[in-house]
Specification:
It is a single chain. This protein has 365 residues and is of the alpha/beta class. The protein folds into 3 domains: 133 residues, Rossmann fold, CATH 3.40.50; 116 residues, Four Helix Bundle (Hemerythrin (Met), subunit A) (Up-down Bundle), CATH 1.20.120; 67 residues, no CATH class. It contains 16 helices and 9 strands. The chain has a 5-stranded parallel sheet with strand order 3-2-4-5-6, with helices on both faces. Strands 1-7 form a two-stranded antiparallel sheet. The protein has a two-stranded parallel sheet with strand order 8-9. β5, α5 and β6 form a beta-alpha-beta unit. α3 packs parallel to α4 and α15 runs antiparallel to α16.
C-alpha cells in the first residue's frame, strides 16, 4: 500500500502540467463549506476524476448527510458559522449508529500557521488542506485516503505534455488590474474554464458582500463580521487576489481578538478595494442590449430545458451560462417565469444541484 501511494504521489509531482492522475467513479465524498464558491471550486477541480461529490453548506447539513450515506472521505471546513468544523467532527464521531464514525475527515482551512497540522490531528482530523486548494494537493489527499480498489490510475506516459498556462484574451480587461494576479488564479484553478466562472461568482456577489459587512459594522456584530471577512479571504485568494486576501486575514484576526478599533479604522479602506473589483469585472460580465423577445413554443422550451439539464449534469459552466442567457431571448409563458428566474440565479452561483432539482419538476420535462 505504501509503495502504491508513493508511486502515485511521485507521478503527480513530476508531471509538467495538470492532468487528472486517476479516475474514481465509484468513490463518494462529502465536501462541507459555508462558502458556496469553495464548493464550486472543489467540484470543478475534481470534475475529470469522476468522483461523486455531495456538498453541504453548514455543520448541521453535514450531520444530516452523514446519517444517510457512508462516504469514502469527508472534507470539512474549519471556520463556519453556528457550528464550526471541529464541533461538527466531534458530533459526527459520536452519532449513534453513525455511518461515518470512522470515515477519514480532512480539515479545510485558510489559516496556514505553524503547528496547524498538530492542532487538527489533535482535534481528531485525519489530515488538513490549506486554501486556496491546489489540484495536486487535493489529488494526493484522495490517493492517501480513498480505498485503493476505487482508484484507477491514468498512465501519465500516454498523456501529452501541457504547455504553461497563458493568460487568454478574454481576461484582457483585467490585465492592468494589479489587485488580481491572473497567472496565479489560473494556476490555482487549472484552466480558464474553471477560473472564469469563479470570477463571475465574485462579481455577482460583490455588492451583497459589501452590504453585509457594512451592516455587521453598523450592528457591532463582530462575530458575523469575522465569518464574513474569512469567507472573502478564501474567495480572494482562490482567484489570485492575494493582497485582498491578506487584508481580509488581518481583519479576521482583529475580529477574533476583539480589536474593534483596528476594524473601525481599516474596514472602509478594505471595502473600497473590494469596490475597485467591480469596474474591470463588469467589462467581462455586464450585459447590454434590450432585444425584442420572441414567443417561445413548448417544443423549443422543452429542448432548452433538456440542454440546460445536460449542462448542469456535466457541470459545464460556460455552456450553462450560454443556454440560460438564451432564455432571455424569448417571451416566456407566465407559468415558467419563476422557474426561469431561479435557473438564471442558480447559474450565476454555479449551483448545479439546484438547477437539476428545478428541472426535475414535471412541468419542465
Amino acid at each position: 500500500m505504501g509503495n502504491y501511494e508513493e508511486a502515485c504521489r511521485s507521478s503527480i509531482k513530476n508531471r509538467s502540467g495538470y492532468h487528472e492522475q486517476f479516475i474514481a467513479p465509484d468513490a463518494h465524498i462529502l465536501v462541507v463549506d459555508d462558502n458556496h464558491m469553495n464548493l464550486v471550486v472543489f467540484k470543478n477541480l475534481l470534475k475529470q476524476t469522476q468522483v461523486q461529490i455531495d456538498t453541504a453548506e453548514s455543520g448541521m447539513q453535514c450531520l444530516e448527510l452523514t446519517q444517510q450515506r457512508k462516504y469514502d472521505v469527508i472534507f470539512l471546513d474549519h471556520m463556519m458559522p453556528h457550528k464550526d468544523g471541529i464541533e461538527t467532527l466531534h458530533e459526527m464521531r459520536e452519532q449513534r449508529n453513525g455511518l461515518n464514525r470512522s470515515t477519514p475527515v480532512i480539515c479545510l482551512t485558510a489559516n496556514a500557521v505553524s503547528g496547524a497540522r498538530e492542532k487538527y490531528l489533535a482535534a481528531g482530523f485525519n489530515d488538513y488542506l490549506t486554501k486556496p486548494i491546489f489540484s495536486k494537493k487535493l489529488e494526493e489527499a484522495l490517493i492517501n485516503f480513498l480505498p485503493r480498489e476505487k482508484i484507477s490510475i491514468i498512465d501519465v506516459d500516454q498523456l501529452e505534455n501541457d504547455k504553461p498556462l497563458e493568460i487568454p484574451p478574454v481576461l484582457k480587461p483585467l490585465m492592468k488590474f494589479d489587485l488580481i494576479d491572473l497567472k496565479l488564479g489560473l494556476k490555482y484553478n487549472n484552466s480558464i474554464e474553471v477560473y472564469l466562472p469563479l470570477l463571475k461568482v465574485i462579481y455577482k456577489s460583490l455588492d451583497k458582500n459589501i452590504l453585509d459587512i457594512e451592516q455587521c459594522v453598523k450592528d457591532c456584530n463582530w462575530k458575523d463580521y469575522t465569518v464574513k471577512v474569512h469567507s472573502i479571504k478564501s474567495s480572494a485568494r482562490q482567484i489570485g487576489a492575494t493582497a485582498i486576501g491578506d487584508e481580509a486575514q488581518l481583519l479576521e484576526n482583529a475580529g477574533k481578538n476583539g480589536e474593534i478599533k483596528y476594524i473601525q479604522k481599516e474596514n472602509e479602506p478594505f471595502l473600497e478595494k473590494l469596490r475597485l473589483f467591480k469596474e474591470p469585472l463588469s467589462q467581462l460580465f455586464s450585459k447590454e442590449g434590450n432585444d425584442i423577445k420572441s414567443d417561445v413554443s413548448d417544443e423549443i422550451l422543452k429542448d432548452l430545458f433538456a440542454r440546460i439539464r445536460t449542462a448542469a449534469e456535466e457541470m459545464d459552466g460556460d455552456r450553462l451560462e450560454s443556454l440560460t442567457a438564451s432564455l432571455d431571448k424569448y417571451q416566456m409563458p407566465e407559468s415558467q417565469n419563476e422557474i426561469c428566474r431561479k435557473i438564471k440565479n442558480a447559474t450565476n452561483e454555479l449551483d448545479f444541484d439546484y438547477i437539476l432539482e428545478l428541472l426535475a419538476k414535471p412541468d419542465t420535462k
